[in-house]
C-alpha cells in the first residue's frame, strides 16, 4: 500500500497580504522558511522515501528543506501539482477585486481555472504516483487549493469543504480500492 503525505508550502508575503497567488511564482518569506524547517524536523523521524513538488518556487523551497532533512537528494517536479491558475485576480486582495469588478466578481469570467479541472488534475497525479510507487511512502508538496480540491474529489463524504494551512500535513492511503484519510491538516510542528 502506498501512503501519500500532502504538504502545503510555507507562507509567503502574498499569503500574509491576502493576495491571490495562483501560479505567480512568489518565494517563501522568512516565516515560511521557518515553517518549512519545522515540517522538515517533524518528518525527519518518519520514513518517507520520495518527494514530489509543484514546479513553483514556494513549493520547491519547502520540499528542498524536507528533502535535506530526510536525506532525499532529488525532488521529482511535476507541473500538474501547481496551484490553481487565478487568472486576472492574481496579485489582488479581496478588497481590490471588489473595487475593480464589484462585489459579484466571482460570477465574472476572469480567466480563473475551474475548480473541477484543478481537482481532476490533482487526483490524476495522486493516482499516478500511487501506482508508480507501490508500497512506498511519498510526500507531495503542493498548494492549498490543489490539495483541498483533490481531497474533496477523492473523499467527498469526508471533505465537502477543506481548509489547508501552510506546511500542514495530510496523510492519505488507499489500502483497498477506497481512499482513506489518516491525518488532516496537521500543524502540530508549528
TrEMBL record:
The active site is at residues 9, 83. Substrate binds at residues 8-15, 58. It comes from the Bacteria. GO terms for molecular function: phosphatase activity. Coiled coil: none annotated. One of its GO terms (cellular component) is cytoplasm. Pfam families: His_Phos_1 (PF00300). InterPro entries: His_Pase_superF_clade-1, His_PPase_superfam, PGM_Phosphatase. This is Phosphoglycerate mutase.
Amino acid at each position: 500500500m502506498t501512503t501519500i503525505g500532502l504538504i502545503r508550502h510555507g507562507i509567503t508575503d502574498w499569503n500574509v497580504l491576502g493576495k491571490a497567488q495562483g501560479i505567480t511564482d512568489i518565494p517563501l518569506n522568512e516565516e515560511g522558511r521557518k515553517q518549512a524547517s519545522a515540517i522538515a524536523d517533524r518528518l525527519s523521524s518518519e520514513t518517507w522515501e520520495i518527494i514530489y513538488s509543484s514546479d513553483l518556487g514556494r513549493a520547491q523551497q519547502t520540499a528542498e528543506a524536507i528533502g535535506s532533512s530526510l536525506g532525499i537528494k532529488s525532488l521529482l517536479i511535476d507541473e500538474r501539482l501547481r496551484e490553481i491558475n487565478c487568472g486576472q485576480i492574481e496579485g489582488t486582495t479581496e478588497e481590490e477585486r471588489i473595487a475593480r469588478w464589484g462585489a459579484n466578481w466571482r460570477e465574472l469570467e476572469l480567466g480563473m481555472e475551474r475548480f473541477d479541472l484543478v481537482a481532476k488534475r490533482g487526483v490524476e497525479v495522486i493516482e499516478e504516483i500511487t501506482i508508480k510507487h507501490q508500497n512506498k511512502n511519498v510526500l507531495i508538496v503542493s498548494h492549498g487549493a490543489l490539495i483541498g480540491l483533490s481531497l474533496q474529489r477523492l473523499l467527498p463524504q469526508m471533505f465537502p469543504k477543506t481548509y489547508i494551512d501552510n506546511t500542514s500535513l495530510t496523510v492519505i492511503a488507499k489500502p483497498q480500492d477506497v481512499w482513506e484519510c489518516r491525518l488532516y491538516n496537521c500543524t502540530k510542528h508549528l
